[in-house]
Each structure stands twice: as structure tokens, then as C-alpha cells.
Hints:
single chain; about 80% helix; about 40 residues; mainly alpha; 3 helices
Amino acid sequence: MISNLILLSKQKRHNEAKELLHQMKDNVYKWYYGATIAFN
């Protein structure tokens, strides 16, 4: 799932990446990628 999240964010498909974030369990990766997507 993280690889899909990285791919979507690199393709600037942030809305789809945010949907994936909601499916992830709370952990460091979820918050890190959430902050990265919000920053972009």
C-alpha cells in the first residue's frame, strides 16, 4: 500500500493518495506521507 501511495504522490494524484491514507492503520508512515501530501 505504501508503494501505491508513493506512486500516486509522485504522479501528483493527491486526492487519490489521501483516500489511501484513510485506509492505513495509524503509524509513523501514515503521518509522514500525510504530511508530505499536504505539503505538496
